[in-house]
Amino acid sequence: MNASPLALLGGEPLISTAGPHFSWPPITEQDRAAVARQLTEAVSIPDRSGVVADLEDALTSCLGVRHVITTCTGTAALHSMYAACGIGPGDEVIVPALTFHATATPLFHLGARPVLADVDEHGQLDLDDAAHRLTARTKAVIAVHLWGLPEDMDALTGFADRHGLLLLEDGSHAHGATWNGKPVGSFGAASAFSLNGPKPLSAGEGGFVATDDTDLYYQVLLHGQYNKRCRSEIPAAHPLARFAVTGMGLKLRIHPLAAALALAQLPRLEGYLKGRQAIAERMLAALEQVPGIGVPQIAAGARPSWYGLPLRYDPAALGGLPPARFLDAVHAEGATATDRPGSTCPLNTHPLFQRPGALLPGYADHQGPGERDFPVAGQVHAGTVKLPVWHRDRDQPLADAYTAALAKVARHHKDLLP
Ligand SMILES: *Cc1c(COP(=O)(O)O)cnc(C)c1O
Predict the structure, then answer these.
(1) For residue 143, what are the β-bridge partners?
(2) Band (391; pLDDT cuts 50, 70, 90)
(3) Could you check whether the bond before residue 20 is cis, i.e. omega within 30 degrees of 0?
(4) Ligand 1 center to 200 CA (angstroms)
(5) Contact of 196 with 73, CB cutoff 8 Å
(6) Which CATH superfamily groups domain 270-416?
(7) Whole-prediction pTM value?
(8) CA R_g for the chain
């Protein structure tokens, strides 16, 4: 007879509400009406007009930048941004080893090389490691505000300036996040964002590039837009205007129905973030004292978007209990939306990064990094346990139940040890 209160060992689960416990984005009547209206207005927009112009104008003013160009995906936005910066064959870009692969993969399609740099114990780019990886071919460094926690943009701006690099940003987790009051995505020469389903601002599918630099803007247009949009936006006297009909030949524009959804969501983003901040603070306060659980340290100038709440699980504090077993026990308590990041992992572990030449011509001689080359990224990833951050007051009890589930498993961890 097992007397453990842990649900995994036959005890009563803490949470009995049926899942899924978290879904995104919240869809309201306004969203339905906006998409329905767009269906009658236009389902294809070849220039910068209608909902596309409205969304780009709104994003421009949110970020405080001159130009925003929407795209069909965040991956396409990253591709256009790199191409617009003139990054091409042989060029190198410093990318944090721990991110979603699309931060780096478009570089392979430009003949360029992602040069991975390790992260620090907080999962942020390690600038000392990055400095060791600079060569004469390094053109840019990209900041990724992982899980919506802003990078130290003072340090990154200084690093880029000191080494004569372009500073770029992947803001895909961090819509509305700020560093010293300035929006993430407005620090670099350009930034790229995803508007994919679960991202803080969602179009279902979509993305955008933001920049203050008008010539870079024309290059972004030429990369993924063509004819009407390029002809109407690139001044006839500009040396690039003669390429307007074809651009660079790719077509990466956003779907108007997706743009309508993102535009309807955008006025609610600030409310989402405020609600998430309140719930995140509650969760952090509850988890701070839980043994085996490390909470993220938020820098004084940082306002996160709380795309997720990344915790660091430390098995040593719980008698060596493996993270997978800890997570099984948390799931058994009913906290089923707790997870370990899957595809957002050390990029050096992906076969594509180890041997890009196996799939991509031009990389036959490219010796990629090895499985264990980025020890800190590996440790951070192996120890990360992620919780959703809800935004509505009425989800507070659920958030409390999740933190209680982690605390319960930690408290009774000895029951799970062999
Ligand atoms: C989602 C994401 C992307 C890619 O965006 P898609 O819209 O899915 O193409 C790129 N970078 C990061 C960090 C992401 O999370």
Answers:
(1) 169
(2) very high
(3) yes
(4) 12
(5) yes
(6) Aspartate Aminotransferase, domain 1 (3.90.1150.10)
(7) 0.98
(8) 23
Verify whether ligand 1 is closer than 6 Å to residue 74 (CB atom): yes
Q: Which residue has the CA at smallest separation from atom 6 of ligand 1? A: 74
Q: CATH 3.40.50.150: does it fit domain 29-268? A: no
End-to-end CA separation in angstroms for the chain: 16
- Smallest CA-to-CA distance from 171 within 140, 202, 148, 204 is with 148
Contact predicate 80/209, CB 8 Å: yes
Give the pair of three-digit tokens for residue 114: 């992602």
The DSSP element (H or E) to which 379 belongs, if any, is: helix 375-383
Find out whether 247 and 233 touch, Cβ atoms under 8 Å: no
Q: How does strand 182-183 pair with strand 178-179?
A: antiparallel
Nearest-atom number in ligand 1 for the CA of 207 is 7
90-137 pLDDT, tens digit per residue, is 999 999 999 999 999 999 999 999 999 999 999 999 999 999 999 999
Rounded Cα distance between 231 and 222, Å, is 10
> What is residue 233's DSSP assignment?
H
Pairwise CA distance, residues 70 & 362, whole Å: 30
* CA of 102, closest atom in ligand 1: 10
